[in-house]
């Protein structure tokens, strides 16, 4: 049972890392491609510019919002399986594993509790004003959203790095446990 939980733990970390990587790649592909297409959106016809950003945002936002929820579920599963597995192995490796997992969970929690709500408010206000064709009201919300974006990206990249580090540590610990 312990090895099964340890294996499940490593699998959960792999899914978590894959989720973050996939969402980041999807956004990294959607925005430049949409910009190159130079779309004009009928619903936002009153807005003079940024149609490409609005279009790409409508594609990427549901995915990125799902990642926030997914991280919460996966963090809970990773913590439960980490604790339940009762790992064997050296203290240094255990510390690396635990610290990496803890940092990933803290980054996911901070993103969900602080950044995501603020970004969602700004994005909704931006899109609402843009739908109404009110550039003057829309652009400050776009700027506020854009100002939060680098921190959100860093948090997701940090969570990715931490889940990968915890996963590697878990694999090493798991392989050591099977030899015992």
Molecular structure report:
- The protein is mainly alpha-helical and 180 residues long.
- Helix content is 87%, strand content 0%.
- It is built from four helices and no strands.
Radius of gyration: 20 Å
The H-and-E topology, N to C, reads as HHHH
Strands, count:
0
Structure annotation, total helices: 4
Mean pLDDT comes to 93
| Share of residues in strands | under 5%
The helix content, as a percent range, equals: over 70%
Largest sheet: none
Alpha-beta content class: mainly alpha
Q: CA-to-CA gap between the ends?
A: 15 Å
Based on Cα principal axes, name the global outline: elongated
Question: Spans with pLDDT under 50 lasting ≥5 residues?
Answer: none
Question: How would the blueprint of this fold be written?
Answer:
Elements (H helix, E strand, L loop, with lengths): L1 H36 L13 H35 L5 H41 L3 H45 L1
Helix pairs in contact: 1-2, 1-4, 2-3, 3-4
């Amino acid at each position: 049972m312990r090895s099964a939980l340890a294996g499940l733990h490593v699998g959960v970390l792999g899914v978590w890392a894959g989720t973050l990587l996939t969402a980041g790649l999807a956004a990294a592909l959607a925005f430049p491609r949409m910009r190159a297409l130079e779309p004009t959106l009928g619903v936002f016809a009153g807005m003079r510019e940024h149609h490409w950003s609005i279009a790409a945002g409508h594609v990427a936002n549901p995915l990125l919002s799902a990642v926030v929820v997914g991280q919460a579920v996966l963090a809970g599963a990773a913590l439960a399986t980490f604790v339940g597995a009762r790992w064997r192995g050296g203290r240094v490796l255990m510390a690396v594993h635990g610290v990496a997992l803890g940092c990933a969970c803290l980054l996911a929690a901070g993103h969900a509790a602080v950044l995501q709500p603020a970004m969602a408010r700004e994005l909704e206000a931006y899109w609402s004003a843009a739908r109404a064709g009110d550039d003057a009201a829309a652009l400050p919300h776009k700027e506020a959203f854009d100002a939060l974006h680098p921190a959100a990206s860093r948090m997701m990249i940090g969570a990715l790095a931490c889940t990968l580090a915890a996963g590697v540590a878990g694999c090493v610990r798991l392989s050591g446990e099977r030899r015992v």
